[in-house]
What we know:
Chain A is mostly helical. Chain A contains twelve helices and two strands, in the order αααααααββααααα. The longest helix of chain A has 35 residues, at 110-144.
Amino acid sequence: MYKLLQIELYKIFKRPRTYIAFLAITSLVGIIQLGLVKNGTDYVNFVMGNIMQSFSFDGKLLNGYLVCYILLQLLLVHVPLLIALVAADMISGEANMGTLRLMLTKPISRTQFLLAKFLASAIYTLMLLVWIAFLALFVSMFLFGVDDMVIQKTNYLVQLPVGDVFWRYVGAFGFALLSMLTVAALGFFLSNFAENSIGPIVATMSVIIFFTILSTMSIPLFQKIQPFLFTTYMVNWKEFFDPKVNADNAVIIGSLQRPDRIIQSALILALHIVGFVGATMVLFKRKDILS
Amino acid sequence: MQSVIKVSNLTKHFKGLTAVNDLSFSVNKGDVYGFLGQNGAGKSTTIRMLLTLIAPTSGEIELFGMNIKTHRSEILRQVGAVVEKPDVYKYLSAYENVALFAKLSGVKVTDKLVMDQLEMVGLASRAKDIVKTFSQGMKQRLGIGIALVHNPQLIILDEPTNGLDPQGIADIRNLILHLSKEMGKTIVVSSHLLSEIEQVASRLLIIDKGKKLVEGNANELFDPAQTIVEIETTDNHFALQQLQQSNWNSLLQPQRSHSILLKLHRQEIPALHRNLVEMNINVISFQPRHNLEDFFLQITSNNQHVQAFTN
């Protein structure tokens, strides 16, 4: 199994396509950071204009933690598309190249083969998120410094003390990994039905875009189906930045307002991963390899 | 004789199509087993079932005396195969491809092992080149190199000469003979070209529409009395008249517009040659040939359908 995983990772990282995602993330984060270095104050004034008329702020409002939050809000909507590039190609790409039949004439079981493939795409997803964390969090901390993190929610403002932020990012990235693995599992599942890479990649992207739109629009009809869409739970990494407050409206250090929501969302996403991968295995084990 | 492959009553149905129909055959140790049939006859489906790529609808497959369903891994460790096209990872080098599949086959990968394999198929000088830059023939040879890297006892080659130039075809033929004679491997080679198989195969199976037509030793199937000679002359009309008035008349076959066909014993060919000269027939080409289509026609017209030859 370990040998198979090594081979799968070797194949993933030998393909130029794999690096498109890393390049895209680097360019995107880099350009936003450059923009914020040059005109960050104007941007913060624009976004928080109304609040700044009512409150006065001390310290660095535009700090590394806030920049990372801005970046994550932008990136985590689009990263699934980059993950689909690899995950949705895992089986269909082999079928398209004709290497699937050569692989399956070797003394490895189909279950091992699929598990190694999914684990490899999970490792790729993890590496992509680690890269995002490095660029969006650590590079931003280096460029903008750190201070209390002020986030504007729909009806209220949250001020997280500087010492209470980092662990929240660890949790948020952990949750984001689960969300992205769900996307990878979906891509992997769809990959089973095609003999070219484009179809499952486009199908995965389409499902994500379609479900995300349905998950985010506050229309009563859509709200009824939102609990059944996994994309509804993917955005709950933001719950890590919603702390409990005491009677004086001050943040309780180390607290989460809705930990149950995080746990429930994580479980639902984990179930989706198991469901997609399990279904892929059942179908693939019975599949006649004709391509 | 020890059976390496034993197939019993193998059947495969796809939606509305019976690709393989109650097929039984066996391959003995050391055989070069020619598996013949026209395109769509069911050769590739059968080979895929032997390699567990396709599940049979019914029937049994045993390799090395073990059931393929229950001993898949043990069996596949002893099998090397190229199925239809030698598709490998085009973004990897020849060396990387051989090393990768050697590892998958459970072999300890060493530089020597990989280079020896590439040397055997004539690709050592291109070891570090990306496969994307290879010709079809080079890919075919690389595919065979990969199939052999774990020193399998049974080698299955499905249409190994597809898309190859004459030199490539000759190279594959020589490789098959080398593997059989020098290394004692059992080889199953499928093709739709009888002329290609007859040069290497010791035993043959011919299938059509998923059913067995004939199975047997090559020298028995290629009865010298069945040789067809195709003659092209400067004036086929004149040549045909001359032949009809000669002793060769009874051997004339239904004619084609551009050539004259005679069915005769191989030993009679020199005499025919001499007679043509004596009859002032100017020969452009003179070709004894085995053609699968003709062979099928022979078999079916003689009501030999599904008759097994002596093994």
